[in-house]
Amino acid sequence: MSRKKRQVEIEEKESAAKAGKRFRRIAAVAAVLVIGVCLTAGVFARWNSVASVVPQPVHPALPDPSPILSKELIYAGSRLLSVEDAGAQGLTGTDLAVWRLSGSAANWYVLGSSGVVGAAWGLPDDKPAPGDFDGDGKTDFCVFRPSSGTWYFIRSTDGGYSGVAFGATGDIPVPADFDGDGRADLALYRPSNQTWYWINSGDGATPSSQFGTSGDVPIPSDYDGDGRADIAVWRDSAATFHILQSASNSLRSVAHGQSTDKPAVGDYDGDGKTDLAVFRTNGDWLILESAANTVTVVNWGLSTDVLVPGDYDADGKTDIAVWRNDGSWYIRHSHNNSLYSAVFGQAGDFPVPAPYRR
Ligand SMILES: [Ca+2]
Ligand SMILES: [Ca+2]
Ligand SMILES: [Ca+2]
Ligand SMILES: [Ca+2]
Predict the structure, then answer these.
(1) Distance CA 173, CA 274 (A)
(2) pLDDT digits (tens, 9 = 90+) for 192-216
(3) Percent of the chain scored above 70 by pLDDT?
(4) Which ligand is nearest to the CA of 202?
(5) Which of 129, 148, 269, 278 pairs as cysteine with 173 (C-beta 3.0–4.6 A)?
(6) CA of 331 to the centre of ligand 4 (A)
C-alpha cells in the first residue's frame, strides 16, 4: 500500500470517526432535546390540565336575552293599584344574578347598578357557591368542584382568584360566616355521614360537627342573631327545623309546615334573626316571624319555581321571591308589599342572587 493510499485511509478513518463523533453529539443533543420536549410537553400537559380546570375571569358580553327591567306593579292584595317605571336603577340590596352553562364553560351574570357584569368562572360539573370570602361586603364569584373537592373564587377586592382544596365528591357547599368575622367561611355538608366541615376564616381552624340525619337539607343561617351562622337542617320526614344555636350551643327544634314543603328561610321581619319558613306546593309561604313568633302566610309563585328569597329592596328585610325557568323573577318587595318583576336569565340558568354590589 502506497504511503499516499494509507494516508487517504487514515484520513477516511479519521473523517469517519469525526463523523461518528459528530453523529453521537447530534444524537445526544437530539436526545436531550427530545427529553426536554417531552418534559416540557409533560409540564404543559399538566399545566394545561390545570389551566383547563382553573377558570379564568373574563368579562363576557351581555347575556342573551338582554335583561329587561319591567314596570313595577303596585298591588293591594290582588288588586293592581298602579304601575311605576322601575327604570334602569340598580338595586342596592340583593342583586339579580344567574349562573349559566354554555358548552364546556360557565358564566356568571349580575345585574349591577350600571348594567350587566359577569365573569366566566366554573365548569359544567361545578356547583355555584357564592359568598363574601374576602369580607368587603361584595359577594365573590365562587364554584365548588366536586370531582377534585376544590373551591375556586374570585376575590372582589383585587380580582385575583384562590383555589382551596377542601371537600370531596358528594359534599354540598354551604358557605356561611360561622365564626362571625364578616367573611364567609368555606363550608360543606356531607350527606353520607351528616357531618359539617368548615374553615374558620378568622383563624384558619377546621372544625367539624355531626348534625343531621339522612335526607336532611342543610340550611345554615343566623337564627339566633349573634352574628354567626348556625348549623341547621330541615327534615321533611318530620316537617321540623333543627338548629344548633351558636350563641348558646344548644339545640332548637321546631315543627313547622308539612313534609312536602320546602325550606325557605330568611329574615322576613328584619330583626336580625333568620325566620323559619317553608314554601308549599300550592304557592303558600308560611313564615314564622321571629320577632312576633307568629306565622304569616303569603301566596307567591308556582310549585315549579325556584325559591330565591333575598333583600332585593335593601330595607333589611328578606323579600319573598321566586325565579321561573324562563328567566322571570317575581319579587315581593317588603317595603311596600308590591310586585317587582324582571326578566334576567333564560331557561336552564341557575339563579344565584346575592349582594354582589358591582
Ligand atoms: Ca368579596
Ligand atoms: Ca368567617
Ligand atoms: Ca348564630
Ligand atoms: Ca327575623
Answers:
(1) 20
(2) 999 999 999 999 999 999 999 999 9
(3) 74
(4) 2
(5) 129
(6) 18
Q: Which residue has the cell 333589611?
A: 316
- What is the Cα–Cα distance from 202 to 208, expressed in whole angstroms? 16
Q: What is the overall mean pLDDT for the chain?
A: 83
- Please state the φ and ψ torsions of residue 102, each to the nearest 5 degrees: -140, 110
Torsion over CA: 68, 129, 358, 61 (sign)? negative
Distance 131 CA to ligand 1 centre (A): 7
Radius of gyration in angstroms for the set of CA atoms belonging to the chain, rounded to a whole number: 29
Centroid of ligand 3 to alpha carbon of 244 (angstroms): 8
Whether the pLDDT of residue 223 is over 60: the answer is yes
Other beta carbons within 10 angstroms of residue 73's beta carbon come to 15
Which ligand gives the minimal distance to the CA of 155? 1
In angstroms, the CA 144 to CA 123 distance is 10
- Measured between alpha carbons, how far apart are the two ends of the chain, in Å? 94
For residue range 228-270, list pLDDT tens digits in order: 999 999 999 999 999 999 999 999 999 999 999 999 999 999 9
CA distance 350 to 82: 31
